[in-house]
Amino acid sequence: MKISKIIIYDEPTVPEIQINRIEKFLKDTFHTDVEVRRSFFENVNDEIFQKVASTRIFELKKPFSKHIPTELEIQIERKNTDNSQNEEKVLYDGFELQKTISKFIPTDEQNQNVLHIILTNKLTCTFDESDFRYHARALIGTNPSIISTTGIIEAPAKPKEYYLELMTDFSKEKTDEINKKYKGEFLEYNDPRLSEVLEGYILQAIMYYETGEAFCENKECRLYNAHWQKELLYSQLKNKKFCSKHEESFRKIINQS
Questions:
Q1: Cα separation, 55 vs 122, whole angstroms
Q2: Which domain holds residue 113?
Q3: Which letter does DSSP use for residue 239 in this model?
Q4: Which is it for the CA torsion 57, 60, 64, 65, positive or negative?
Q5: How far is CA 155 from CA 125, 188, 226, 241, in A?
Q6: What is the DSSP annotation of 184-237?
Q7: Domain tally for the chain?
Q8: Helix 19-30 vs helix 244-255: angle between axes, to the nearest 10 degrees?
Q9: I need a surface site. Which of 116, 119, 181, 208 has the fewest CB within 10 A?
Q10: pLDDT tens, 68-88?
């Protein structure tokens, strides 16, 4: 295993994250040094808020273009740091955000043996040139890796029937009724299942760092790249296993520790 230490940054505005359980899970799985830190965006100066605000997305159908953030945008960054949900639905270019965060990682920790995993409520997106638009992403896999709790909820799609029923009436009453009807079939904000699902994304981040491959196309694998909430809940909560290929890969990684 190339990694000698994993530093995971909590997102305290999302109380469903059982950070101590995640720490134990990582230690039991990889037998490596694991350190938990508070939110990466907590107790930071305005320079970080300004840099992060500059990674915001304004045009969903155009590649990323940097801009100079306004004071209002910087204030929104401060506000979102205190809220469990990305209430303003601000979108961030995931790769630009990753580059920004990497500049504020302590110099003595910027080496190939220390993997930083940032948990955040910020909604990360990447531009897809196949359809020329941005898509929400739960994981930006590199070092530091970013795992978006909002992305886990928003990126994998809800059942098709959910959207079809919602199209007939967008009122709050109808939305609440539909959400109640399909409750349990997808992750919601303040969902107690979120922490366990997070473990799977952390495994994907580690796999990407170790092998350059984060996802699997096999639905029976915990590394499966789920496009639907149903698939996500199955791979991370019901199945919770690796396919034979990735089971072997993880054993090799662990044996190299």
A1: 11
A2: 5-255
A3: I
A4: negative
A5: 9, 12, 9, 22
A6: TSS--TT-TTHHHHHHHHHHHHHHHHHHS---BS-TTSTTB--SBHHHHHIIII
A7: 1
A8: 80
A9: 181
A10: 999 988 888 877 665 555 555
Query: Hey, which bits of the chain come out as E strands?
Result: 5-9, 33-37, 91-93, 114-120, 123-128, 133-137, 139-140, 145-148
User: How many residues make up the chain in this entry?
Assistant: 257
Residue 257 has pLDDT above 70, yes or no: no
Running DSSP on this structure, what letter comes out for residue 182? T
| Percentage of the chain exceeding pLDDT 90 | 77
User: The domain that contains 116 carries what CATH number?
Assistant: 3.40.390.10
Gap between the Cα atoms of 73 and 79, Å rounded: 10
Six-digit token string for 192: 């107690």
